[in-house]
Amino acid sequence: MNSQELQEFQKALGKQILTYRKKKMCTQEQLAYEVGVTSNYIDRLENGKEDPAVNLYFQLCITLNAPFFGCCHIKQEND
């Protein structure tokens, strides 16, 4: 994965985190508290500036009631 693909992945993942957070109707502060990070970090995730470690990603999926693999699905040109 090159740097452009990584950035696209981070942005897509961030959008999914934002979507599931809004479905749960919680704030960045509430989500951050539930998974043990700062609200600033959640903001950076949602804006594609960070990618979470696998254990944090797993915790986000559990907390947001999101499918583990479905949350990070990125549409490919030939999908």
Automatic annotation (TrEMBL):
Signal peptide as annotated in the record: none
Pfam family membership, one: HTH_3
PROSITE patterns tied to this protein: HTH_CROC1
Keyword DNA-binding: yes
CDD domains cross-referenced by the UniProt entry: HTH_XRE (cd00093)
Domain HTH cro/C1-type: 17-69
Gene3D superfamilies for this protein: lambda repressor-like DNA-binding domains
Domain of life where this protein originates: Bacteria
Keywords, ordered alphabetically: DNA-binding
Keyword DNA-binding applies: yes
Protein name according to UniProt: Helix-turn-helix transcriptional regulator
Organism of derivation: Virgibacillus sediminis
